[in-house]
Each structure stands twice: as C-alpha cells, then as structure tokens.
C-alpha cells in the first residue's frame, strides 16, 4: 500500500476511534473567521498599513490590553478581530498616527468611532470592547498621533504636527481609513456611521461635525472641552480662587462635602419638588451663603468672609479685565466631588500643560502669569485649531446629509462648567435661526443630566453603564 494512502487510512481510523469514544472535537465554526482575521493585512502606501499581526478573540476569550491611556481586562466580549494600523495623517511630512479597529464576528453593519480623553495618546481599548464590539459595531479609535507616557519631554512642546493630530487630524484620518479597512475586511460597505465621546471626545466629535460633516450619520457627545482656549484658563482661575492650601481663602474638602453641600441642598434641593439630594436645575436656586458665614455667635462650623467670597466666585462666571466673559462657573449641587477636581489642593495638570506646551511653548510658564492678554493670545493662536466652537453645523444637520447630534452634560460636572454645553447649544440654535437654516430640535438635542458628574454616572460599573446607554 502506498505510504500516503497508509497515512490517510491511519488518520481516518484515528478520527473514527475519537468519534467512537466521544473525544473528537470538530473545528470551531468561527475558526474560519479566526484564520481570516489572523491572515488579514492592509497596506496602502501613503495612506495606512497594519503594524502588527491581527489578533482574533473567540467569544469569552480573555481580552487583556493596556496602553498609556486605556485598558481592558474582560472575558465577556463576543468574538472579534483586533486590527492595529498606522495611518498617515500628513503625507507632506510623513506624520503618522496609530489606530485600532475592533471588528466583531457578528457585525451589525455599522461603524462606531470612539473619542479620546484629556491630552493622552493611546487607543481607547476599553470602549472599543465595551461599547463597540459588545454591541456589534465595527469600532475605531485613534491614539491621537502620539503615545505619551508620563515623564520625559512633553509631547506637544515645539511639535505642531503632533498638536494638529491631537486636535482633529488623527481622528478624521482614522475614520476615513477605518471605513476603508472595514469595507475590505467584511467585503461590504459600512451601512451607518456613528461617533461617541465625552470631554476631549466631545470636542473631537464637535470638530468632526463642524469640519467633516460627511464622516458620521449620528454623533453623541458629552460635556465637550470644545472651547479649549477658555476652559483651560478657567480651570486655572478656579484653582486660584481657593489655592494655595492653607491660605485664608482655602476651603477644605470636608467643608465642601458637609457644610457647603448640606446648605446648598437645604436651600435648593426641594425647588424641583423632590428632596432627593439632586438639583434638577441648579440655575433656579438663588443660593445665600449667609447661614454658613461666621458671625459673632458662630465662629467654628462656618466660612469666613474671605472663604465666602471665594465660594461665590467659584459659582460665578469668570469675567476678566474689561468685563470680558471667559467661562461659566461651576453649578450648585456638585460639592461632593468639587474638592477632587478644580477646587482641590493642586493646580489642574491638564490646564497648566495646555498653557505651557500648547500655547506658550514655555515649560516655565507659571499660573501667576494668567491674565486677559494670555487668554487672548490663546484665542488668536487657537493652537492646532483645537477649538470646536463653530455654530454653523448645517452641513452636518441639513439636507442632503441630514446628520443627528445628541449632546449630554452632567449638571454636577466638576471639570467643565455645564454652562459651556448650554452656551454652545444656544450659539448653534441662534445661528441656525438667524440664518434661516431651520429649527434644530429635530437634528440637535441637548440633554442636561441632573446630579451627573463629568462624563460619569457614579456607582454603576462601566460595562453596565455602557449597556444602559445602548445607542443601537
Ligand atoms: Ca431635588
């Protein structure tokens, strides 16, 4: 008997025995998908290329990925293919950015881009998992053009290309390339295209709506840091209202969380008809600090007049020299978290970083140098064109594109005044009305969320939170 035939018979016999004794394991149905994933490469010179072997995760496989800005460790995800790309963001300089595409086996035909946070680099793998593939979307996330780790030279210093990538370019290019790669992978065009992001992610989403209205059919943004040239100086301003620690204006965390918060609730909570610890509309309350101001009969559990002045400034609009409006104040009601943020014991890292390395290109710039001229310099430069404040979104919302924009903001936001969201929404509404571009109610909705912090609903685990926020 021919040796090859012998081998074939041996193999068949081996299989027969395994089946007979119940040990034969058929190949998984998804192994074809796994093989296709692992073999997948994308190379388009001058545009993008895969930078690592694509990884396939079967449903329930442990997905444990960490980068400088995001991490995920889960065994609850459906089957998907992880594709890592380098995209060319500026062919003239050969500047590139990293991007990840997570492509579910059971694809719903839709595309979802995930926004970033802060100034950090690194794809948002957490949301690629829990938001995109968990709901059947092909997800894309950019590293914003840098992969910053703490320490070393700050990435934006004298690096305009990196700043432009962070500001808008890496997102847009990743979306355009991402759709091409998705189409190649599934051999099927994207049906609908969506975006979701909060804070920096909210800013990126608005930038997309304003600059690249064709990228998405629907955009969901939360508390956007869209007025960079004002939110950053405002953050430093709020710091300075109470800092340094142990100055006469300093207010300890326990005082915010007990004395002040309790008095705010006493005066404001019931105005919405329900005393539940949440202010449905903090702007309705005309807070009077006098009951907690120290006087001749109460000099211990109280605020000095200097502290009261600081407190009321924190809740007030930031008005600079020449009566120049800079930014809205924090809202009443979020005092449990305010000491963990801008009225805490240290200067805002993000804001100081922005002023030093984006605007001034000066590592020694100090908070004490903040003034109207510095803010106006920031406005004039609008470094990287990071501001996303254009009120004309008609190319996105109106025919023929007919996009939809959903915007939410927590009214207890501790990092960006909720007034900023209202300001942008109202600017769009006014612009569209003034230019006869239609009523925005059908295309752009703002949802203020009472009691909600910056981009977070407290006390609910992330994966459950995201499923509650299911946007399918
Ligand atoms: Ca209430």
Which H/E pattern describes the elements? HHEEEEEEEEHEHEHEHHHEEHHHEHEH
Total count of helical runs of at least 4 residues: 13
- Name of the top-level CATH class of the largest domain: Alpha Beta
Annotated CATH architecture of the largest domain? 3-Layer(aba) Sandwich
N-end to C-end Cα span? 61 Å
CATH topology assignment of the largest domain? Rossmann fold
Unreliable stretches:
3-24
Tally the beta strands.
15
Alpha-carbon Rg, integer: 26 Å
The helix fraction, in percent, is 25-40%
Number of domains: 2
List the ions, cofactors and other small molecules found in this model: calcium ion
What attributes does this structure have?
472 residues, 2 domains, disordered N terminus, Rossmann fold, alpha/beta, globular, binds calcium ion, two-stranded antiparallel sheet, 15 strands, single chain, 13 helices, eleven-stranded mixed beta sheet
In short:
By secondary structure, the protein is of the alpha/beta class.
Question: What would your notes on this structure say?
Answer:
- This protein has 472 residues and is of the alpha/beta class.
- It folds into two domains: 31-226 and 385-468, Rossmann fold (3-Layer(aba) Sandwich); 230-383, no CATH class.
- The chain has helices at residues 3-20, 31-39, 125-132, 160-186, 200-211, 228-242, 253-268, 305-314, 349-360, 372-381, 394-397, 418-434, 462-468, and strands spanning 43-44, 48-50, 55-57, 63-66, 71-74, 80-90, 95-104, 110-114, 138-142, 192-198, 218-222, 318-320, 324-327, 404-410, 444-449.
- The strands form three sheets. Strands 1, 2, 3, 6, 7, 8, 9, 10, 11, 14 and 15 form an eleven-stranded mixed beta sheet that branches. A two-stranded antiparallel ribbon has the order 4-5. A two-stranded antiparallel sheet has the order 12-13.
- It starts with a helix and ends with a helix.
- The protein binds calcium ion.
- The site of calcium ion (CA) has 8 residues, from loops.
């Amino acid at each position: 008997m021919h040796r090859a035939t012998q081998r074939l018979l041996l193999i068949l016999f081996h299989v027969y025995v395994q089946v007979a004794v119940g040990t034969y394991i058929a190949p998984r149905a998804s192994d074809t998908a796994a093989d296709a994933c692992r073999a997948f490469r994308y190379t388009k010179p001058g545009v993008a290329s895969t930078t690592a072997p694509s990884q396939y995760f079967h449903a329930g496989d442990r997905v444990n990925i960490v980068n400088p800005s995001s991490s995920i460790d889960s065994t609850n995800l459906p089957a998907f293919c992880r594709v890592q790309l380098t995209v060319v963001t500026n062919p003239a300089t050969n500047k590139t950015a990293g991007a990840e595409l997570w492509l579910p086996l059971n694809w719903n035909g839709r595309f979802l881009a995930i926004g970033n946070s802060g100034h950090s680099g690194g794809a948002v793998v957490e949301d690629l998992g829990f938001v995109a593939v968990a709901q059947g979307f092909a997800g894309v996330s950019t590293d914003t053009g840098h992969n910053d780790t703490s320490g070393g030279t700050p990435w934006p210093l004298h690096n305009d290309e990196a700043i432009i990538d962070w500001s808008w370019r890496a997102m847009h290019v990743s979306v355009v390339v991402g759709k091409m790669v998705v189409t190649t992978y599934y051999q099927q065009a994207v049906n609908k295209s969506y975006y979701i992001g909060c804070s920096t992610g909210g800013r990126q989403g608005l930038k997309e709506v304003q600059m690249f209205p064709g990228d998405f059919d629907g955009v969901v943004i939360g508390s956007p840091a869209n007025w960079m040239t004002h939110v950053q100086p405002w953050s430093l301003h709020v710091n300075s209202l109470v800092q340094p620690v142990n100055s006469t204006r300093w207010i300890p965390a326990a005082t915010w969380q007990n004395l002040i918060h309790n008095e705010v609730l006493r005066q404001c909570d019931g105005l919405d008809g329900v005393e539940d610890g949440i202010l449905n509309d903090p702007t309705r309350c005309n807070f009077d600090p006098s009951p907690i101001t120290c006087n001749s009969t109460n000099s211990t559990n109280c605020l000095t007049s200097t502290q009261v002045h600081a407190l009321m400034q924190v809740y007030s609009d930031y008005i600079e020299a020449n009566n120049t409006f800079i930014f809205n104040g924090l809202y009443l009601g979020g005092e449990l978290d305010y000491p963990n943020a801008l009225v805490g014991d240290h200067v805002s890292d993000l804001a100081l970083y922005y002023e030093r390395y984006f605007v001034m290109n000066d590592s020694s710039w100090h908070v004490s140098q903040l003034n109207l001229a510095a803010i106006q310099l920031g406005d004039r430069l609008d470094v990287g064109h990071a501001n996303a404040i254009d009120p004309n979104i008609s190319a996105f919302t109106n025919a023929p594109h007919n996009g939809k924009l959903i915007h939410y903001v927590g009214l207890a936001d501790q990092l960006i005044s909720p007034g900023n969201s209202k300001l942008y929404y109202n600017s769009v509404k006014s612009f569209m009305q003034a230019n006869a571009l239609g009523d925005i109610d059908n295309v752009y909705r703002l949802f203020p969320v009472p009691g909600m912090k910056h981009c977070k609903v407290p006390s609910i685990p992330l994966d459950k939170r995201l499923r509650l926020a299911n946007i399918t």
